[in-house]
Amino acid sequence: MKITVIFLLLLLVCSGSTDQNKEAEKEILAQQITSLQSLPQDILAVLREMAVTLTQQKFDMRLLQTENKEHAAKLERQETELKKQETELKKQETELKKQETELKKQETEVDKLKQQLKVGQVAFSASLLATGSGYFGPFPTFTTLIFKHVPTNIGKAYNPHTGIFTAPVRGAYHFGVVHRNTWRSPGFRSCVGQELATNCDCI
């Protein structure tokens, strides 16, 4: 009789504990269901934010692409304009070189004209002595008389060291020579001769 009573008590305790476990499991399940029900809403919110961000990024990307195309087109136009300017600059440099060459030619021509103008007026006067009188010769051969006293020498064509006159330009030249023989001696005969030579040829 005692044994039966104890078994019934054990059955009651076990059944009581089983009911408690079921209630706990129900509570846990309810919490999980609640968390699962709230989870998709959070995911949707995140997805929506991501979609908005992606749309904004796409818009920004298209805007940047458009700006890049505009910048590329502008850069290409600037490069084309720069090439044109370089070509024009080269042309100007070539023209400037031509003008410089022409200017040098003109300067050379002007210098020649100035030189011709300077030597265009040629005149000189010279004598063997500055003052007084003296004797020269006799000479056994033809000798160049050097007129060292030169009061006038326009154009510097006469060289008082060599006695040679060099014509600087083509033209007609007039030469006048005056000499005087004052030597007298009984029984002797004096003779004075002169010749004008050009390029070592007497004329």
Automatic annotation (TrEMBL):
Task: Tell whether Secreted is among the UniProt keywords.
Answer: yes
Looking up Gene3D superfamilies in the UniProt record yields: 2.60.120.40
- InterPro entries (UniProt xref): C1q_dom, Cerebellin_Synaptic_Org, Tumour_necrosis_fac-like_dom
Q: Where in the cell is it found?
A: Secreted
Q: Which residues form the signal peptide?
A: 1-18
Specify one Pfam family: C1q
Main location, first listed in the record: secreted
* Ranges in a coiled coil: 61-123
Kindly state one GO CC term assigned in the UniProt record: extracellular region
Give the SUPFAM superfamilies listed for this entry: TNF-like (SSF49842)
Q: Write out the transmembrane intervals.
A: none
Q: Is Secreted one of the keywords UniProt gives this record?
A: yes
Q: What is this protein called?
A: C1q domain-containing protein
